[in-house]
Amino acid sequence: MTPYTPEHLPPQNIKYEDIISDVGQANAALARYDGLLQGVINPGILLSPMTNEEAVLSSRIEGTQATIEEVWEHEAGQTYDLGKETDIQEIKNYRKALTLASEHLSSTSIRLGFIRQLHEILMDSVRGQDKHPGHFRTTQNWIGPKGCQMEEASFVPPAPHALENALIEWENYLSFNEKDPLVQTAIVHAQFEILHPFHDGNGRIGRLLIPLYLYQKKALSTPMFYLSAYLEKNRESYYASLKSISSSGNWTPWISFFLKAITFQAKSNIDKTKLIMSLYEETKKTIVEITKSPNSTLLTDAIFNRPIFQVNYLIQKLGIAVPTAHQLCRKLKENNILKTIREGAGRKASIYCFSDLLNIAEGKEFM
Known about the structure:
Layout: H1 16-37, H2 43-46, H3 48-61, H4 68-75, H5 82-104, H6 112-122, H7 160-173, H8 181-195, H9 202-216, H10 228-233, H11 235-248, H12 252-291, H13 296-305, E1 308-309, H14 311-318, H15 322-334, E2 339-342, E3 351-353, H16 355-361
Antiparallel strand pairs: 1-3, 2-3
Helix pairs in contact: 1-12, 3-5, 3-16, 5-6, 7-8, 8-9, 8-12, 11-12, 12-13, 12-16, 14-15
């Protein structure tokens, strides 16, 4: 199989008449979600479960097996076998890259150098760290079953000598004004995946670009819109619609799939955000009543930001004394806000869990 020669951007064969309904529905759904986001006082804290879910699911598409709960447990001091630890580190790297990228875009725009920085963070101390983190590939890669040869590949990205010009064209397209920003985001993501410019981590970087580019195009007021839940559930359709571009030069099936994904995920995010916001207000009120503490709001924010933790986390986050932190945890346990998932013994401290938030984060409220 020979390396693919990518089409020039912008694509010339998009049939807007075939996707006009998808365009309208996706824009309307995303606007409703963004309107809700703008009413969230501190989305970085309140919606951190959704950020963690995105990191877990985007990494799961690439083969990791860790859950949201295991990531938080690990951060609270729980240990796992080496394979699980590596999975968790990949997820934490993705979350770190997403957080830093969001901060970066408040003052600048997406460029190739920025993409390389994200990749370096993503591949730090995990599988693939030997595959030139932060550097675009200079050798041929291909996509197919693990261990397959290039002749057996399902897709062979552009040859290394063609990659530099294709990436420059892709970067220039970021500043182009397509007829619709959501359609343009679909093209940006797909072309990045087709170019497959890194030796590893292309899928995760490509999915991370979706909320970042929507934010850059002002389709979102904050880059907190994640598609990996939908893409993970519809993985075969995701890859098949992407492949239609390289196999037939037809962008329309992919763009239609992408727009439907935005519509579905925006509605799902609205439901989840409302549940989290409602739980936050209810929890804050209860904590004020049962603790009578001047730190009630900070305490509520802390357990929403990290719903599995040791008492030291509260001591550092709230700046309170050790006895005060233990007393707060005891009161929250007595009122069924917190549960103990590991009792303290010897040098091992207790690990507490805010299970109501975990249920929402893991989608159990939707079952």
